[in-house]
TrEMBL record:
Name listed for the protein in its UniProt record: Sulfotransferase
Primary location: membrane
EC code(s) of this entry: 2.8.2.-
Protein's organism: Fundulus heteroclitus (Killifish)
Keywords from the UniProt entry: Disulfide bond, Glycoprotein, Golgi apparatus, Membrane, Signal-anchor, Transferase, Transmembrane, Transmembrane helix
Subcellular location(s) per record: Endomembrane system; Golgi apparatus membrane
Segments of skewed composition (Low complexity): 85-105
Domain of life: Eukaryota
Disulfide bonds: C321-C333
Positions of the Sulfotransferase domain: 124-358
Any one Gene Ontology molecular-function term assigned to this protein's record: [heparan sulfate]-glucosamine 3-sulfotransferase activity
GO cellular component: Golgi membrane
Length: 375
C-alpha cells in the first residue's frame, strides 16, 4: 500500500483509484519484491512426482522436514503399502537429519555373490608330467592353498589344441586375483617334443613341475590302467620287449618311452633353465606328502600353508588322502583309478627293465642333481 501512495504522489491520477484496484496493485508489487529478495525460497515440486519435497519455506528460514518419507522414500512406500501408521513428525534440526542420512548410507549392501571377481590369466605354473607319476595328487594337494587356482581338467593345449590359440587356452583357466597363481596339469606335455618351445613362446617365466617315479613301476601302472579299459590287450612282456630272451626292450612303446626321463629333459633344457623346473618324487609323495608339498610351495614362492595336518594315510588305497574339510562330510581321496592293484609281472622281466633303465636313471640323477634311488 505504501508503494501505491508514493506512486500516487509523484504521478497524480486524473481520477481516484478504486479500493479494489489499489489492493491488487499492492499485492503484485509485494510479490515482485519477495521474489527478488528470496529467489530460492520456493521449492517447486513437479506434479505427479510421488516423492514429497523435504525442503519447505518457513518465513525467511529453510528447515529440513524430518520424516520417514524424506529419509528413505522406498521404505516409506513399503510402510504405507503394509498399512503401518506414520510416526508423528517432530521438528528436528540439520544435525539429527544428517545423522539419519549417514546411517542410511552405512546400511550393508545386498549380497554380491553373483558377481564374478578376478580375471582369467594364462598359467604361471604347469604340471607337465609324467603320466602315472602322481600328477593328479600334486594338483589336488596344492590347490588347497588359498593362493592357488587350477583348471579342473587336462587342457592338452600345447600338444593337441595349440592351433586354437592362446585366448582359447586362457578361457579354460579359472578366475584369479592378482595375488593368486594360475595352474594347469597335462602330463603328456613332458614327452611331447614341441611343447617346451610352445610354452616358452607363451612365457619364459612359466614355472614347470615334473612328478617322476621309478620308470619300471610307472610302466606297469600305465599298462594296468590301459588294460582296465582294453581287456584284450596283449601281455605286458609282449609289449615291453622286442625279444625278451635277448633282453631287447621296445623303446617305441609309449609306456617304456615315457620313463626315459633324461632324454625328455634334454629337450626342455633347451628352452628353460633347470632352476625353473621342479621335480617331485612320486614315491615320497606317498610316504611324505607334506614334505613334498612344502618343497612345491617353496618353488612357487608360496607361504607353507599345506602341511601334515591336511593329510592322513588311507590303508585301503595305500595312498594319502586329504582330511575332511570343514565344509564337507567326508575326507577327500583320489578317484577309484588311483592306487589300484598292479598287474603281476614276471620277476625276470622286471629285472631286465631295471637293467635297461639304469644308465638313463643315472644320467637323469646327474642332470637334476638328485638321486631318486630307483635301483
Amino acid at each position: 500500500m505504501a508503494y501505491v501512495l508514493i506512486f500516487s504522489r509523484h504521478f497524480p491520477f486524473s481520477h481516484r483509484l478504486r479500493g479494489t484496484s489499489i489492493c491488487l496493485l499492492s499485492l503484485f508489487i509485494s510479490f515482485l519484491c519477495y521474489c527478488a529478495l528470496f529467489p530460492g525460497a520456493a521449492v517447486m515440486q513437479k506434479s505427479g512426482d510421488p516423492t514429497p519435497s523435504c525442503l519447505q519455506a518457513d518465513g525467511v528460514k529453510l528447515r529440513l522436514q524430518k520424516s520417514l518419507s524424506c529419509l528413505h522414500p522406498l521404505d516409506a512406500q513399503r510402510s504405507s503399502a503394509a498399512g503401518e501408521a506414520p510416526q508423528p513428525q517432530t521438528d528436528q534440526r540439520r544435525p539429527a537429519a544428517a545423522a539419519a542420512l549417514t546411517a542410511r548410507d552405512n546400511t550393508p549392501s545386498p549380497p554380491m555373490s553373483h558377481l564374478k571377481f578376478g580375471n582369467k590369466k594364462l598359467p604361471n605354473a604347469i604340471i607337465v608330467g609324467v603320466k602315472k607319476g602322481g600328477t593328479r595328487a600334486v594338483l589336488e594337494f596344492i590347490r588347497i592353498h588359498p593362493d592357488v587356482r587350477a583348471a579342473g581338467t587336462e587342457t592338452h593345449f600345447f600338444d593337441r589344441n595349440y592351433d586354437r590359440g592362446l585366448e582359447w587356452y586362457r578361457g579354460l583357466m579359472p578366475r584369479t586375483l592378482e595375488s593368486q597363481i594360475t595352474m594347469e596339469k597335462t602330463p603328456s606335455y613332458f614327452v611331447t617334443k614341441e611343447t617346451p618351445h610352445r610354452i616358452s613362446a607363451m612365457s619364459q617365466e612359466t614355472k614347470l613341475i615334473v612328478v617322476v617315479r621309478d620308470p619300471v613301476t610307472r610302466a606297469i601302472s600305465d599298462y594296468t590302467q590301459t588294460l582296465s579299459k582294453t581287456p584284450d590287450l596283449p601281455s605286458f612282456q609282449d609289449l615291453a620287449f622286442k625279444n625278451q630272451s635277448l633282453g631287447i626292450v621296445d623303446m617305441s612303446w609309449n609306456a617304456i618311452r615315457i620313463g626315459l626321463y633324461a632324454l625328455h629333459l634334454e629337450n626342455w633344457l633347451r628352452y628353460f633353465p633347470l632352476a625353473q623346473i621342479h621335480f617331485v618324487s612320486g614315491e615320497r609323495l606317498i610316504t611324505d606328502p607334506a614334505g613334498e608339498l612344502a618343497r612345491v610351495q617353496d618353488f612357487l614362492g608360496l607361504k607353507r600353508i599345506v602341511t601334515d595336518k591336511h593329510f592322513y594315510f588311507n590303508r585301503t588305497k595305500g595312498f594319502p588322502c586329504l582330511k575332511k574339510p570343514e565344509s564337507s562330510g567326508s575326507p577327500r581321496c583320489l578317484g577309484k583309478s588311483k592306487g589300484r592293484t598292479h598287474v603281476q609281472i614276471d620277476r625276470d622281466a622286471i629285472e631286465q627293465l631295471r637293467d635297461f633303465y639304469r644308465p638313463y636313471n643315472v644320467k637323469f640323477y646327474e642332470m637334476v642333481g638328485h638321486d631318486f634311488r630307483w635301483e
